[in-house]
């Protein structure tokens, strides 16, 4: 077992700089296994994720990093023929537990996808969609939510004059920030980001990265990326996945400067992947 | 400032999930209803008709007496009709499809032909009957012959075969064509020896579907004036004839219950033919579907 | 070894050279073939021209016997009466629309509900089994549905509604509805399935239920395809012949009553075709005038369906 689990109690000691006190754990993954049909995609994953941090998940294509993040809000169940074993505790409660509604989980755990996927509606309606389905009908409150969310996603100034135009008129980078705003509108606890900048140009990427830094003050963020520089720039902790296993999970500074595992080193130095 | 109260959201979740469940069953029930109707229809036809369906029924000529009535003339007539429709639609349909996919330039005329074909598919079948009556029965003096009916039906089902042949041709990968051109083959050689063999399963499937539409249609033939009752068999394509749907229509229209049962037996014969044809189509599709 | 190969190579070249002479034949066919194929393609255009020309010419003759005003405004359709014959198409149109409306009332909810079930709720396996069965339902000859309407649906309805006549608008209307349901279900399902998965994921990730995703994301995104499928299906209902000819009756009347015998445009054409109306009589020409009206109705609806699906096509 090569998995390095940094227990939260050790964390404050290990990570002396910046972290004022021991942080709570949002997600605790225990012995998670996942199969697509016969394909064993995730193998014995054990991973604790802290609140108000950015946790990056890196690894070569097909290593299971996207699968893992989609398991955290059970989006993976939209794929037919998926089986899981083990537990994922979100705020102390196993999300696979019978009676735990996926809808309930997903109102607390927002997600941003690889490609921007706004709805074919106006910018306003895109952001208001979540609050509306969750029963908020008051127009005034909706207006406030839309403004707050768009500001939170650093796109308000660009779209405030055309809130009722179709979201498809925005550029790719703007669409992705709109999707982030859409996710903020339901005031989640955690935001999952599945390679959110892979379809964006460098300038849009930079904007999203700055935004992530801003958002971590209020939210816990888990971000999948195949861009190692990005992980190094924005994350507090990094997990390296390979062939469905966690090879190394520790402070980002440490994993990039002084990896313990040979395979992590090989990947980081660009020897494969 | 927080606008969303997650405990409230949680409270509201229950009715939303309940609505989801209720509607899931409503949607499922609607789908089940459509399938149930098919089941009832088949059950009714079989229980009504099975008593009359025997060798004598297939061999018998139409009769005033339901016990002796048979479908021989209509069944043979339907086969004659297939004999005309098959070559005509295959020739015209595949020819049109090859032209549109391989030769036609992307211009207004081509898109006009294309729009025309899709509109033709939406013209009610009875209107084709009026066309056939004027052009084939009267102007060309073919009368209510196999040929007149066959040509009318061919025009009716032409859009079906054109569209499916086009899809089949379009599905042949460009690489195969390029490989053929790369060896110096001409366009027609490429079409004949590379494109057609690859497209033939799709074309045949479409052809069978078109043919099954043609042998199930009644309305245009009523307009052409095909007899509802005929005691002799056609000897050539210029002879008068009748077909299964016409015979069924005739029996259905009779007031006596017994004839309704005879009609049901006739429907069983017709549906059996259609099932056989469709099974062949499914078989061809599964057997020869190539994955490039 | 090397020498052998070159000699082989040369011989193939020679063969090709030899063949080139006979290739003239190919070159000729290269030129003739597209021309022949063009001719086959033109047949479909000629069919349309033939339909329009036939209907126009015979309808024109009809209007030399009967005035256009009478045709469009008279509320009576009594073609067979020698003395008080009247050719007002409104009763036939009313019969047609009544039946089409009943069919739509049956088919639209059931068809759309099935489409939502198949595209949003059903597993892949269920979908793979159910869709072909629906296509079978769509492939059953209409005379079979007519038989079903007359011998099964009408008796049941007469048990429920004693005032219902043997021939009525309700029974064929319902059965046509059943006939066009698979068309709406299948075409709408196609439209819903082509809504990108990413869009559904976006909504699911916000905690939406399947119902909310279907109603607020998928249906709005697929609405043009859905409406087009309904328009096409209603057009099919308007042109449907055998079900109404068998179960609808032959009493044209201008009313909203669905329990009594009616006659649709198509059923009238059938009635005349089966009768002994001689060539050249007013009645003979009247079927073309009625057919032309029917053709215009369905053509407009088909064009509308094409317009909707082109004009409002969503670009994802």
UniProtKB/TrEMBL annotation, chain A:
GO terms for molecular function: ATP binding. Gene3D superfamilies: P-loop containing nucleotide triphosphate hydrolases. Keywords: ATP-binding, Nucleotide-binding, Transport. Residues 27-268 form the ABC transporter domain. This is Phosphate transport system ATP-binding protein. It comes from Cytobacillus purgationiresistens.
From TrEMBL, chain B:
It is found in: Cell membrane. The chain crosses the membrane at residues 21-46, 79-100, 120-140, 190-212, 218-238, 259-284. It is a multi-pass membrane protein. The keyword Transport applies. Residues 75-280 form the ABC transmembrane type-1 domain. SUPFAM superfamilies: MetI-like. It comes from the Bacteria. Keywords: Cell membrane, Membrane, Transmembrane, Transmembrane helix, Transport. Belongs to the binding-protein-dependent transport system permease family. CysTW subfamily. This is Phosphate transport system permease protein PstA. It comes from Cytobacillus purgationiresistens.
TrEMBL record, chain C:
SUPFAM superfamilies: MetI-like. Signal peptide: none annotated. It comes from the Bacteria. The keyword Transport applies. Keywords: Cell membrane, Membrane, Phosphate transport, Transmembrane, Transmembrane helix, Transport. The chain crosses the membrane at residues 32-57, 99-121, 133-157, 169-192, 213-234, 283-305. It is a multi-pass membrane protein. Residues 93-305 form the ABC transmembrane type-1 domain. It is found in: Cell membrane; Membrane. The keyword Repressor does not apply. CDD domains: TM_PBP2 (cd06261). InterPro entries: MetI-like, MetI-like_sf, Phosphate_PstC. Gene3D superfamilies: MetI-like. Belongs to the binding-protein-dependent transport system permease family. CysTW subfamily. PANTHER family: PHOSPHATE TRANSPORT SYSTEM PERMEASE, PHOSPHATE TRANSPORT SYSTEM PERMEASE PROTEIN. Part of the binding-protein-dependent transport system for phosphate; probably responsible for the translocation of the substrate across the membrane. This is Phosphate transport system permease protein. It comes from Cytobacillus purgationiresistens.
